[in-house]
């Protein structure tokens, strides 16, 4: 088994992910939102790249709500922003969440040619590692990044997932995967590292400290959503409410 990391969604193409298990990470905040939504009883999450696509799908999908952001702010006319705290059981249980974000949903879409596409974050790092390891094939962790660029928050999450995979058995690591692992092992206080990230400061300036605190919790959920044919759901046997 070989583990690699893509530093942003813009670096992903079909050849990079073909034949591999993909774990898409957007810790601050899209993949955390997706995981939280399904934990709290959403039927599905439909990730899309544009606002126009989101509005079009809503017209033909039952029990649909709109969520997402542009420049870290709620999109006008949408039901929810990109804050995981808004996706409570009372708000989204039984709903189909149509989600569009600047980076995360694009990274998911670009990863579609992998053997399977799992949704990961710090909140489910151990579960994502366990599920990916169970397929016994090469793994690539796709960091969503910010505007096509490297992000520290996704990188340290990748390191956390790599460490959890290695706890289950040996694996060959690419140089970038080794570096992410070293970063994680050197910064067990994840916030002390992530606070230096540009995207962290953007959220902090917007007074989204509660979102940051929530997203930087490790292993609070044991589910691993999977993206398939344009929709993210829990696979059979996973329990949404812990």
TrEMBL record:
Coiled coil: none annotated. InterPro entries: ComB-like, ComB-like_sf. The keyword Secreted does not apply. It catalyses: (2R)-O-phospho-3-sulfolactate + H2O = (2R)-3-sulfolactate + phosphate. Its cofactor is Mg(2+). Keywords: Hydrolase, Magnesium. The keyword Magnesium applies. Its EC number is 3.1.3.71. GO terms for molecular function: 2-phosphosulfolactate phosphatase activity; magnesium ion binding; sulfopyruvate decarboxylase activity. Belongs to the ComB family. HAMAP family: ComB. PANTHER family: 2-PHOSPHOSULFOLACTATE PHOSPHATASE-RELATED. This is Probable 2-phosphosulfolactate phosphatase. It comes from Youngiibacter fragilis 232.1.
